[in-house]
Amino acid sequence: MTRMGALDVLGAIEPGGNYADLLPHADEMQLGNLAVRVLDLQTLITIKETIGRDKDRAVLAVLKRTLKEKQGGTE
Q1: Displacement of CA 21 from its chain's centroid (Å)
Q2: How far apart are CA 26 and CA 9, in angstroms?
Q3: CB under 8 Å, gap of 24 or more: what pairs does 24-31 form?
């Protein structure tokens, strides 16, 4: 746990692959003085859809709406 919340660091994500496989699908963000890489929304959505756990399905609607808004879409 960090003072900014939970931090989930994984060496591999199935079905996404390992770090090298996922790197082209990650964006760099600044977290204070630290540069971190996070999966882009489309890749995160695809992985969560494939995994299909309850906790993954629970956030899919929010992630999809966020992606649509980011792409300039309207509902």
Answers
A1: 14
A2: 14
A3: 31/4
- Tell me the chain's radius of gyration from C-alpha atoms: 13
Lookup result for tokens 């959505």: 45
Q: Residue 75: pLDDT above 60?
A: no
The CA distance from 12 to 9, in Å, is 9
Q: How many CB atoms lie within 10 A of CB 68?
A: 13
Mean pLDDT of 46-67: 93
Mean pLDDT over 34-47 rounds to 92
Between CA 75 and CA 62 the distance in angstroms is 13
Token look-up 């060496």 returns 11
